[in-house]
Amino acid sequence: MKMASFKPVIFFSTWCVLVMGVFAEVNFEDCGSLHGEFSSLKLTGCDPSSMDVCPLKRGKNVTIEVNFLTKEEVTKVDVQVHGHIVVSVPFILPNPNGCVDSGLTCPLANNTQNTYVLTLPIKMVYPKLKVDIKLELEDQNGEDIICVMIPAKIV
């Protein structure tokens, strides 16, 4: 058997691996939205089309903007943000009330498009590591309106 016949296969395999690495992109995942559906997410300094994780710079603020559709009337919005490493660690939020200074005006009507904006300080004491950020907007019953998982790295 000649080795020359394997060269095109090796070349093609290598090319596929390189192309897949170049086109890796951030995948924001729904992690259990019950009473809403997120349609888009923007994060400061994160280009989902060219990154596989969003960088969170220590000592800086990151702004997260989530667009979502409600599937019920919502009178109250509580915000929960956790970092998932091995265990779930809560981020300290400057304002956990989603109805105040967040772009939302409560109550939120059923079947409406909404935009929630959160500015999250990334403290210098946070260790440099890869972390999944879980953002939950909870309704008046403590159930998730939306839940979004954001792959990130504290740098």
UniProtKB/TrEMBL annotation:
**MD-2-related lipid-recognition domain residues:** 28-152
Q: Give the range the annotation lists for the signal sequence.
A: 1-24
Classify the main location: secreted
User: Which Pfam families would you find in this protein's record?
Assistant: E1_DerP2_DerF2
Q: Gene3D superfamilies, alphabetically?
A: 2.60.40.770
Keyword Disulfide bond: yes or no?
A: yes
SMART domains in UniProt: ML
InterPro entries of this UniProt entry?
A: Ig_E-set, ML_dom, ML_Npc2-like, NPC2-like
Tell me which family the UniProt entry assigns to this protein.
Answer: Belongs to the NPC2 family.
The name on file for this protein is Niemann-Pick type C2 protein c
Q: Which organism is it from?
A: Adelphocoris lineolatus (Alfalfa plant bug)
